[in-house]
Amino acid sequence: MGAEQDMGERGQVRALNKMIDEVKVQAARAVRDAGYNVKIAEIKRGIRVRYAAPGRLRAEAVASGRPIPLINYGARETSKGVSVNVKSGRKLIPGAFIATMPSGHKGVFVREADAKHRKMVNARKPGWHALPIRELFGPSVPDGLANDAVERTLRQLIVDRYPVLLEREVRWLQRRKPGR
């Protein structure tokens, strides 16, 4: 009985770990399909996975992260501002502009209401600049995962796939020779 129980627990651990990997991939796709126009790799980066282990039959996928810069949402500069595709179609942000900072960071910015024009010298070229400016951000990865359609998709995935994965892993362990 001990060996069978151990095999069942190992099968559960393996099935849970494979399931959580599938959940991460499908979560990223579901967020993208829900209308959040950001790269899947950016979404996956915001999902941390904690795997199951013998004695701890629980796998977790936790979304965290700050709001994603609007530049990652397909930003395009126009004569009237910046156009972005965040959730439900392309929207114009009047007066916004795309700029690359001296550090190399590129983003969508707007001037603050109290911005004052000042003459500045940049790379030995004088010019007028209105500072301060602030960067604009879109929804974060946790916001995308909190979408009802995404939650329903992930729940259905778990209900459909976990029993199949568990059965497959237990059968694989039974076919394996003991001691390997």
Write down the overall geometry. Answer: elongated
Cα end-to-end separation: 19 Å
Largest sheet descriptor:
3 strands, antiparallel
Q: Strand arrangement, largest sheet?
A: 3-4-5
| Strand-residue proportion | 25-35%
Portion of residues within helices: 25-40%
Order of helices and strands: HHEEEEEEEEHH
Describe the structure.
The chain is α+β, with helices and mostly antiparallel strands and 180 residues long. The protein has 2 domains: 2-66 and 140-175, no CATH class; 70-135, no CATH class. It is 39% helix and 29% strand. The protein is built from 4 helices and 8 strands. The strands form 3 sheets. The protein has a 3-stranded antiparallel β-sheet with strand order 3-4-5, with no helix packed on it. The two termini are 19 Å apart. The model has no long low-confidence stretch (mean pLDDT 87).
Structure in a nutshell:
The chain has 180 residues and is an alpha+beta fold.
Question: What structural keywords apply?
Answer:
180 residues, alpha+beta, three-stranded antiparallel beta sheet, 8 strands, 39% helix
